[in-house]
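Subject: two folds for Thursday's group meeting

Dear M.,

Sorry for the delay on this. The cluster queue was jammed most of the week, so I only got both jobs back this morning. I'm pasting them in the order they finished. Each block is the input sequence followed by the predicted structure tokens. Could you check whether the formatting survives your parser before we put anything on slides? The first protein is the one we discussed after the seminar.
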Amino acid sequence: MNRIHFAKLLSDRGVGQKMYGAFSIVFVSVALAAAGTFSLAELASVGGSSSSAAIGVNDKGDVVGWSYTAGFEQHSTLWAGGGAPGDLGTLAGGHLSNAASLSSTGVIVGASSRTDGSYHAALWSSASSAPVDLGTLGGTNSQAAGVNASGDVVGFSYLTGDGTLHATIWPSGTPGPADLGTLLNGHFSQAAAINTAGDVVGVSDDASWASHATLWAAAGGHAAVSLQSLGGNYSQATGINDKGDIVGMSANAAGSFRATLWPAPGHAPVDLGTLGGTFGGATGINAAGDVVGYSGTAGDLNRHATLWRAVGRVPFDLGVLPGGSSSQATGVNASGQIVGFGVNSTFDTRAMFWKPALATTPPPSGTGCVRSSGEHGERDRSKGERGEPDRKGQQGERSKGEKDNRSKGEQGNRNGQQGNHQNSGQEEGDC
């Protein structure tokens, strides 16, 4: 049986430190030889010193993800303009939430636990609004993963009886979710992203339980269509831009998972390459076609956040923090601002925000290591990074003892269940 992970679907980036009230931002200059610099900000948690992770960024530079409160509850978090963390809260009676995406208009989507221990897709219409329960397809749990400028939301939900998980769309202005279905005779599916046209991407299995990157095109009535792999028997899509370019990961003929681009209009798969290792994955793409994600370094010893610019497509190492073990980029906006997370020297996860100082292209060497004396780092998936549901549809438990009931399938294990080939955190060394 295949296990599908939302975080996979579902994704571094000299030193000055500024203190703002109860939180700190550490700015790190990332030298790109002959190519300008990035500034790297570590985004704090609402609890001040606990773990955090950035998952999405819009073109205004607003960032969403999750962070721990002072009481060690994981809450959806908004860093407006990459600044102070704001607690978005949970559905009534809940103790756990995560924000996965936000639109250009500021609509935020994700999921939250509820009083009965279930976990439902949730929507915040603004930073100051209470979350709205988007409901399910009849099952216990659901998760929202993407939202477009029109307010259409996509994700996945259990069907009645909780026997299977299906890709789901919550159209703007329409009450309730709609089932996007699976590939022919498939058993499960998940949606990860939606563009302005309403095209949806994600993953579905087929009659043989093989998983395929899947496109539900609006022009095709959202019928599920599989995308070609790199020669292996597994692929999944995680992002799509308004041009129709799709990114994700695919197994090649050797069985290694690789960051993959399916450019429009033909969507023939392109292997984006690695930082010297055998594996990688793409998690986001902007309007210009810049792609972000992660890649294995030489010997597959480490996983680093990676940028593949639209021009040249050379994998560029965004690095890790001093003493950090891993990093991963999860999103990129039209200005080239990148978000993600990574593990620091004390094995805590920190939300990360890279800002390009100059609109330039990384050199062919593809190296740009982060060097900093900052204390924050990035979050290890072994600590429950970006909630990936397993085939049972669970949604990432944060290892600090969230009050979920696994028997009820509220929060699936965030530990990287597919090893080096998932978006789940694999250890990585300094650059």
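Second protein, same layout:
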Amino acid sequence: MKTPCIRCILWVFSVLFIQHAALAQTTPPAEVAPPSTSPSQTLNTPIFTDGSKQKKPKVKKQWRFTVDIDAGFASPGNAELSDAFKGGFNASFGFKTAFLKNKLWIRPLGGLKYYWKDANLGETRREAFRTWKVGAELQYNAYTYKKFSFFPILRVDNNWSVNNFTKLSDEKLETPAAFETTDKVLTGTGISFDAGIMVVRSGDLYVKLDYEYYKPEMTVSPELVQEMLTNGIIIQEKKSYNFSSINLSVGVNLNFKK
């Protein structure tokens, strides 16, 4: 009796073992989830490079370029020029670039100063005094208040000056002209020096006031010297004249790269 019971128990255990083995082969193993990290842990994780220091990306320096155009009134600053002309036209054009965190600006430029008037020398003529300029200007941003910036300025120019007379009509008058020479009566070159202040509004419009010291040596036209000598008048062929002036200009900045 015991033997059949033992055989039945062994048979049941054998069936259960075979069934458990079959289930173990067909069921996939459970996946283990990776440890979760919070956003704060991710952001606070330090990044180490060589030398245990994080390298900062290099920032390429951005240069600023601006075109300046201005024009205004020139007033003679001494008797030598004011006796001949009461006022004239002054203009300049140039581009500039910034240094020292946009504090210091260097401006290569070209300019023109032009005086003129009508003169009655037996016939109506137009007398003109023209000066072409090439030089450089320094502008320093010393103070800023709201929308206005104040720039002390220094400028140096090389100048080419001409004084001439132009006939306004071909009428022949009974009274002879004081002299016939109408081309370049005086010619000369020299260095001029400017100092003043420039007020810029919002980086675009500006007003400039400066004093220019200019005392070139002028050469009288050989034709005029000979003509005066024929009339019994001796004139000095070369002489230094003080053509200094006070200039008031209005201009605009054209920024094309920042």
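Two things I noticed about the second structure. Residues 39-43 have pLDDT under 50 and may be disordered. Residues 79 and 148 are 36 Å apart (CA to CA).

Cheers,
T.
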